[in-house]
Amino acid sequence: MNNIVEKCKAKNVRLTDQRKVIAEVMSNSTDHPDVDELHKRVNKVDKKISIATVYRTVKLFEESGIVEKHDFKGGKARYEEAPEEHHDHLIDINSGEIIEFVDKDIEILQNKVAKKLGYKLVDHKLELYGSKIKK
Amino acid sequence: MNNIVEKCKAKNVRLTDQRKVIAEVMSNSTDHPDVDELHKRVNKVDKKISIATVYRTVKLFEESGIVEKHDFKGGKARYEEAPEEHHDHLIDINSGEIIEFVDKDIEILQNKVAKKLGYKLVDHKLELYGSKIKK
DNA sequence: ATAATTGCAAATGCTTTGCTTGTGA
DNA sequence: TCACAAGCAAAGCATTTGCAATTAT
């Protein structure tokens, strides 16, 4: 079963053939592919889907809250299916590998900091960049 | 006195007229200007300095650890003089205003999280996006 | 002197868009 | 049916770069 397709239906996002393929590919990805990589994977299923459609679709999905966009270092935007529970990312500066993590204490402190400054926290971005400890 | 010019001398970064102007403008900026804005301010002092030179110079300064580059939401990179002490940013989603803050507890937790995942923390990015609480 | 720097314009890389044809509900 | 979506190629935008002329040390 396919999560993104379900979410599209729930949110009344029109489902075309190409959107179904893109949705499937994204649902089956456990990493954080950029548009180019997504396009390659999508083309394995249907060669005729253009990169413009991939761009338009990820943007549509993002605006519908179905996927999340990340601007990690490197210039190109990367996407993942919107998770049930929020998480942040640690990026391996050597391999580029991305590890997801959750830290409730940090979240609590972020809210506290924002409030102290007179703001209501609406969104945040936390990225850790690190190198593997060899043991 | 001009901090960035001093830092250039300390780091053996060749000081041309245009770099001096750019350094001065950046040292006198308390906000986080993008290259276009920087170019405008620089041109008030010397109309002939090209935007290519501004791009080359901020990159040079950044690689020398003299200024910091930020990729906040909005597409264009923004710069500030490298601070003595590290700080993070809260961005007002309505006005675009940027507030700097320091939270040692969050820093400590970040290191803890990285270590738990088997990584040595090399760098991090924390951006809070919020809206002003009206009282 | 001479290796580095500048200005200009052209090139780049990612992303968006106009337009015509195709299609889902 | 018919408003919306796709494909293609052209345009956009921030940033980089090749090259000839200029400059710092």
Short description:
Two copies of one chain form a homodimer. Chain A has 135 residues and is an alpha+beta fold.
Structure description:
Two copies of one chain form a homodimer. Chain A is of the alpha+beta class and 135 residues long. Chain A folds into two domains: 79 residues, Arc Repressor Mutant, subunit A (Orthogonal Bundle); 43 residues, 2-Layer Sandwich (Dna Ligase, domain 1). In chain A, 42% of the residues lie in helices and 23% in strands. In chain A, the strands form two sheets. Chain A has a three-stranded mixed beta sheet with strand order 4-3-5. Chain A has a two-stranded antiparallel ribbon with strand order 1-2. The N and C termini of chain A lie far apart (41 Å). The relative contact order of chain A is 0.13. The mean pLDDT of chain A is 92. Chains A and B meet through helix 5 and strand 5 of A and helix 5 and strand 5 of B. Strand 5 of chain A pairs antiparallel with strand 5 of chain B, so a sheet runs across the interface. Chain A binds a DNA duplex (25 and 25 nucleotides) through helix 2 and helix 4.
